[in-house]
TrEMBL record:
<feature type="transmembrane region" description="Helical">
    <location>
        <begin position="346"/>
        <end position="365"/>
    </location>
</feature>
<feature type="transmembrane region" description="Helical">
    <location>
        <begin position="306"/>
        <end position="326"/>
    </location>
</feature>
<dbReference type="InterPro" id="IPR020846">
    <property type="entry name" value="MFS_dom"/>
</dbReference>
<dbReference type="GO" id="GO:0022857">
    <property type="term" value="F:transmembrane transporter activity"/>
</dbReference>
<dbReference type="Pfam" id="PF07690">
    <property type="entry name" value="MFS_1"/>
</dbReference>
<feature type="transmembrane region" description="Helical">
    <location>
        <begin position="262"/>
        <end position="285"/>
    </location>
</feature>
<feature type="transmembrane region" description="Helical">
    <location>
        <begin position="372"/>
        <end position="390"/>
    </location>
</feature>
<feature type="transmembrane region" description="Helical">
    <location>
        <begin position="163"/>
        <end position="182"/>
    </location>
</feature>
<feature type="region of interest" description="Disordered">
    <location>
        <begin position="1"/>
        <end position="22"/>
    </location>
</feature>
<feature type="transmembrane region" description="Helical">
    <location>
        <begin position="76"/>
        <end position="94"/>
    </location>
</feature>
<keyword id="KW-0812">Transmembrane</keyword>
<dbReference type="InterPro" id="IPR011701">
    <property type="entry name" value="MFS"/>
</dbReference>
<feature type="transmembrane region" description="Helical">
    <location>
        <begin position="45"/>
        <end position="70"/>
    </location>
</feature>
<protein>
    <recommendedName>
        <fullName>Major facilitator superfamily (MFS) profile domain-containing protein</fullName>
    </recommendedName>
</protein>
<feature type="transmembrane region" description="Helical">
    <location>
        <begin position="234"/>
        <end position="256"/>
    </location>
</feature>
<dbReference type="InterPro" id="IPR036259">
    <property type="entry name" value="MFS_trans_sf"/>
</dbReference>
<keyword id="KW-0472">Membrane</keyword>
Amino acid sequence: MKTLTRFDEAEVQTDQTATHDGEEVENSGLTPVYGWRWAALFTSLCLGLLLALIETSISATALVTIGAYFDDFPDSTWVILAYLLGYSGFSIVFPRLSDIIGQRAAVLLAWVLFAAFSLGAGLSRTLPQLIVCRAFQGIGGTGLYAMTMVISPQITPVKRWPLMGTSVGVVVGTAAICGPILGGVITEKSTWRWIYLFNAPFAAIAVLPLVLLWPRNNKTTNRQQWRHIDVFGALLSIAGSCLIVFVLNQVGAAFYKWNDAVIISCLTISGLCWVSFVVWIAVLSRKSLWNIDPIFPGKIAATRPSGPAIVVAFLAGFPYFVAVINLPERSQLVNGLTPIGAGLRLMPLLAFTAVGTAVGGSLCTKKNRTPEVLVVGAMLMTIGCGLLSTLSGGRDIEAKQYGFEVILGSGFGFFFASLTQMINIENKACNLAAVQGAINQARVLGGCTGLAVATIVLNNNITKVLVGLVSSAQLQSIRHSLGSIETLSPSQRELVARAFANSFNTEMRTCCYVSIATVLFLKAYNRHTATNTNPVISFHSPGTEALSRSLQTPQTKRLSVQYWLWVPKVRFQRAAKVLEIGVYSTIRTTTTGP
């Protein structure tokens, strides 16, 4: 009896074909690279991931300064919104584009967009110019994020997967740490323009390995596929995502009310876009209309674990964005800290997000405790959010807050590390881009929803506290931008601080409820055992497909694989085959002879 519980316990060679569902399928992934070439390529990809994630939060601590520079506090929120619109709107489109133009061309295009419009944002003379550049920068950013997640498992030898998972976790955590702190430091010590300009020199360095060291592709890009691209599906996805993000931001910032005609129109159009998108993808998945390849394969949404992973990514994005954005704001408004001080007080959460991601990634790849790590991460998120909702509204920061941040950060790290590893293991290379794009989009949409809910709660509390004490114009200005509280008297600022402290506790309780829903969703799993009568192993990366094939030898008498189903049983029990629903836990083979 031989038991394989680690990826590096077997020497695996990448084949051109591998067995899947009893048939031979073509391996469309990249050839793994080794030694310094792998280190250079992987470092280049991680640098793109780092900068793309930093840009999602670096503007938060500089927003007040940017609004003052252009003398436009209300519209300054579009600096963040524009990036999120580009980032979320193209999360599915950009990875799918890589299937058409090739992965190297796609990642280079992402770098060009990101670097060029970073320069444009830093050199903008008007706020509208800055907003437009940030939107296109977001498109490049989502390309860097998605392509890193897609390419890294393909170029990495199987025995280095633990190192890859740990490294990606460290990068994600480092980005979360650096974003708010860099924004505060650069804004205070220099000019806000450098929070965008510094991306350009890093881009010039990062593209060199991609140009010089790119590995061989096992499948030559078919340029004729351009006529098969799903333009209509892409437009529906972009419109649906952008409109819902716009609505959440504008209502949350009190620019519009839910019953305003603009909001109702946007919600209606967004809903129609998403319904049309689902119908369109379903039609394309069943019929080959005009030889168009759907931008998002419909079978992925109904297949475990990819479909449910999109749902839990949305749920996890809700508390993550609320905590990372609102904790520094609480430190500034309630505790009276500077942007740099607020960023430093967030270090326990962000540092342990990095530690949790590294540890969780190691557990997932070395011993494959992916389902357990995922559930534990969601539980820690629930506990951390619940504890943070008990903070008092005093001027001094309580020491226990740092401990609560450690718990919450560890939960985020465990959760995102295991979710990423699960998707990388479970999906074939040809589907990985679409799945990673959908998960990224769901996470951002969940975060935007959380921030909108948090802003609505805050504005309602501030209105209750300040109504009758300040003019309607002042109250409206404060609801649009918290930077406007500088115009208030000390006693009025104290009232705003108390309102923010109470609102923060309410927000974290809401995050706790969302995290509880995540735990309940994840706990709805079953464990299945597959034998040689129900083959084989749900490995889809190039190296692990070869491992799957190598175990199906004439000497193999029995093959046992453990699968986890972490979706509601009633809905999906009849939907998927055992081959497509699990994550590898343990392989045991009984052989005859020597």
